[in-house]
Amino acid sequence: MKYGYYIQAAFYLDGMKALGLGDHQDFVFVFQQRDYPHKVYATTICDETIEIGRKAYRLALKTYATMLERYGADVPWPAYPDRVHCRSYPDIQMHAPSIDYGFMPTR
Question: For residues 52-64, b (16+ Cβ closer than 10 Å) or e, as one string?
Fold first, then answer.
């Protein structure tokens, strides 16, 4: 998830299909350890995760097309909104430390 391999797999699978190279179902990643003993590991990504990757790359392409249409290719695009934004963190309570004010340690 950290490196977006699921997005890469979905993008490549769809690209191969669009180029008429077949409707492949699996995309195999082969990893090799950098350090000795340089073991090799092969894995695929399950269909449900490929579908999430597909949605992610399609959203990225839509965003790119929108920005290209709005600002063109000859000027820098804005990276941040031009107004103050109030960010909400609905799950903050889940991560906040719990404090029990009813407990006082005794010596």
Answer: ebbeebeeeeeee
68 within some domain:
yes
**Segment 2-60, tens digit of pLDDT:** 899 999 999 999 999 999 998 877 889 999 999 999 999 999 999 999 999 999 999 99
Task: Say which residue the tokens 């103050």 belong to.
Answer: 84
> Is residue 55 a part of any domain in this protein?
yes
How many domains in the chain? 1
Q: How many helices (H) and strands (E) does the chain have?
A: 3, 2
97 within domain boundaries: no
**What's the rounded Cα separation, in Å, for the pair 39 and 30?**
11
For the entire predicted model, the pTM comes to 0.65
For residue 91, being part of any structural domain is answered with: no
Q: Is 38 helix (H, G, I), strand (E, B) or coil?
A: coil
Q: Which domain holds residue 36?
A: 5-72
User: Which residues lie closer than 8 Å to 107 by C-beta, 6 or more apart?
Assistant: none
